[in-house]
């Protein structure tokens, strides 16, 4: 054992591991006699809460004997069993919280003996339907998913079984009570039991539990091991952040000095090695052990863990422990060994640890802890709970993207060997990389053993066997494959185009829906192409500002890693630009997909199911180019409600983020000015050569994506990349303005005014149209009228300048009058011919003969 480790063992009963924080920030911890033995204090690197209560018996941040960790949870479970009685305990369901309490909750379920177990998760699993979710406001990673293999697990039976909710600490109670409230609305029960290692509520929060139980009409019990309170002085958050910053700056300086010394030493060794006199020390070996994990037993409670699973695991544990012991060798029987779990994978390594304690006997010092997503300051002081920190990259392809992960109190703890336990999803090249977890462990231990538990992925019973996969360029669209995944099916070889006049007559007569066919793609004249080029050059900075502003707003309110889902196809160039802004300014690689929504028919339900199977629906942000009168805004909200009502996964937020919101229809936007967005000037040739979307019963089945076409033949006219590159080139130029505008918007009242809808209703009546669907407000919508529909007339705001040059040119080419008007909330409005038949136009199909 190292000298430092020996010193720490000697100090464990002398210095409380919360003294350092208490002395510097005035944080107080008061409670029963056991509380300070259970908890220490550390500082979070988290803007929401300054302090962290560090448990000495949880096995997350502080290595502890596995039997002590398991016994803490099991003992709480026995108390719940005593509270409920044997029969009710058998019918209870236990729910643990990710990531910290997944192992604790499982041990509590074991203490109840016959109760099934489920824990929340932050890892979406492809093909598994979400049964619920909730937010943990103060956490580093806030979103929790509930993904039971059996959806009935959380639904009470006729006897209204008790739900037991387990977390490591019960502080404000917000997370647990919000969970109960959400589940009670869909599956009400008569009784809930909350279980935690420590009850740290304030007196005010203690009263809330009684009020809450009365509010929902159920009994709510609380079972904890210890009770206390945390007192926080005023300004503790700001002072804590300043203290963290100061400590990290000091540590960075020390690290730089150490690196310089290490580099000098390496150079000296390298010089000696050239003449054969020395060589660099070899890292500790990494040995992979085959656990022979029992078939059919889940790796944990992410999808549910039944009493039958428990019995199978118990029977297999002794053999698996012997396999690990053999891999460690005889020296482990007198050594210090750490069994290190992985984030939510806490129970499997914990039980392997308890079995290893028995296999190796009293001579071995077995400890258990796990890696974590949570960033915490490390201070090498006996009065601080987090003495050391290992940092390594995520190695399980997490849904929120790459980032750092941590192992605390491992470095310098004198471990002779580390048994790293991960699931197969996390057994990736990143785990084995030179900077990965295994290499970090090898630098601080004499031996590393890797044990991989097979990841359990159930097959959902109510989903189609195979959902279609997104289409990507260059096989579908001219966009780069990383720019966007199209949740569409390829109908490029299907004849769908119809002459504009025939389509208009069929649509207005009710003979066909506009999404059942496609207009013939408009081929711009040389004069019109020149107008597009000029508009792009003059408006690029303005668009870049709007892109930056809406992206910063989304990151601030829907972060840390939103999933962009653009409404094809007008929203798709905007989604690509938002993705580029996030990558350019913040280094974020945001997922981006394009989805079809059809007015009057709703959103693509298969695409929503695909998104829910691959991402947390709460992370999805719908993106569009602009608002007109707000029809799609309303359509999306109604479609999401219908989707959830029909049994689709819940959690999608129907709010749309748009580049421009002249109609005042949304609260997330880059600007509310009605100006020319060059991507509205053209059709497919500025949208990756993709058509508008198609929904026709003979082409799109219930489990198919909506359709679209890739116009490869128009490649020579494609300006999609040019549009993106021209705007993105102005990002740095507008960064300062974006920062100020986004800050102002985030503090402003951005409630929709629906000003545009009111104007459209007025215009519809004034011009005798009596159909708001034939009134298309704004530059973008007016352009669409001229390119795709049969226009009647154009209303232009008096004095509108260069933003309408392309409108005037298109109107001239199609023989459509442009009427200058006052008091228009938009730059222009396009009116579709309200009583259209082919007899209403001239021989060229353009000139309107009469009103």
UniProtKB/TrEMBL annotation:
<dbReference type="InterPro" id="IPR041688">
    <property type="entry name" value="PRTase_2"/>
</dbReference>
<dbReference type="GO" id="GO:0016757">
    <property type="term" value="F:glycosyltransferase activity"/>
</dbReference>
<dbReference type="Pfam" id="PF11202">
    <property type="entry name" value="StiP"/>
</dbReference>
<feature type="domain" description="PELOTA RNA-binding">
    <location>
        <begin position="754"/>
        <end position="833"/>
    </location>
</feature>
<feature type="domain" description="Orotate phosphoribosyltransferase-like">
    <location>
        <begin position="38"/>
        <end position="228"/>
    </location>
</feature>
<dbReference type="InterPro" id="IPR028157">
    <property type="entry name" value="PELOTA_dom"/>
</dbReference>
<dbReference type="Pfam" id="PF15609">
    <property type="entry name" value="PRTase_2"/>
</dbReference>
<keyword id="KW-0328">Glycosyltransferase</keyword>
<dbReference type="InterPro" id="IPR029057">
    <property type="entry name" value="PRTase-like"/>
</dbReference>
<feature type="domain" description="TRSP">
    <location>
        <begin position="299"/>
        <end position="439"/>
    </location>
</feature>
<protein>
    <submittedName>
        <fullName>Phosphoribosyltransferase</fullName>
    </submittedName>
</protein>
<dbReference type="InterPro" id="IPR022537">
    <property type="entry name" value="TRSP_dom"/>
</dbReference>
<feature type="domain" description="Cysteine protease StiP N-terminal">
    <location>
        <begin position="477"/>
        <end position="727"/>
    </location>
</feature>
<dbReference type="InterPro" id="IPR011215">
    <property type="entry name" value="StiP_N"/>
</dbReference>
<dbReference type="InterPro" id="IPR000836">
    <property type="entry name" value="PRTase_dom"/>
</dbReference>
<dbReference type="Pfam" id="PF12500">
    <property type="entry name" value="TRSP"/>
</dbReference>
<keyword id="KW-0808">Transferase</keyword>
<dbReference type="Pfam" id="PF15608">
    <property type="entry name" value="PELOTA_1"/>
</dbReference>
